[in-house]
Amino acid sequence: MGGDQKGIEQGTTFVPKFDQQGLLSAVVQDCSTDRILMLAFMDREALDATVSTGVAHFHSRSRARLWKKGESSGNVLNVEEILVDCDQDALILRCRPAGPTCHTGAVSCFYRKLEGGILQPVNS
User: Fold this and answer.
1) Which phi and psi angles does 60 have, rounded to 5°?
2) Contact at 8 Å (CB) between 95 and 31?
3) For 81-124, how does the pLDDT look when each residue is reduced to its tens digit (9 = 90+)?
4) Residues annotated as binding site for Zn(2+)?
5) What is the pLDDT of residue 3?
6) Were both Cys, which of 8, 68, 77, 99 would link to 56 (CB 3.0–4.6 Å)?
7) Residue 69: which residues within 8 A CB-CB, separation 6 or more?
């Protein structure tokens, strides 16, 4: 899993850098609209499942287990592209959502903005 910093930053070898809890951040973006849909965490198992199936899997911190997005709702995230940041400790999953991403039924989990100390709806 090792590698020098230059190799990590400029090389072609994927060496994901998980944190102390074994997680890395994954931002989910709609590949058609570029809208940010959600933020989640991936462990090695979730990353491997995502890469092998093409469907987004995450590590559920609250349930402490592998979680396939949409496993109960059917609103899966079909992964079109995985972007890796320079330190290989964060990912952007560019996806085609099969329905609303947020458990509230909203298209995106980011459906509010902070304005003057008050949460206001984001216009879609």
Assistant:
1) -80, 110
2) yes
3) 999 999 999 999 999 999 999 999 999 999 999 999 999 999 76
4) 86, 102, 109
5) 52
6) 77
7) 40, 55, 56, 57, 58, 75, 76, 77, 101
This prediction has a pTM of 0.90
Amino acid of residue 31: C
Cα–Cα distance between 30 and 93 in angstroms, integer?
A: 8
Q: In CATH, what is the architecture of 20-99+110-121?
A: Roll (3.10)
CA distance 17 to 84: 11
For the annotated binding site, the residues are 85-87, 89, 102, 109
| Residues in binding site for Mg(2+) | 85, 87, 89
pLDDT tens-digit readout, 50-66: 999 999 999 998 889 99
Q: Residue 19's closest CA among 53, 61, 69? A: 61
Q: Which residues are 93's β-sheet partners? A: 28, 82
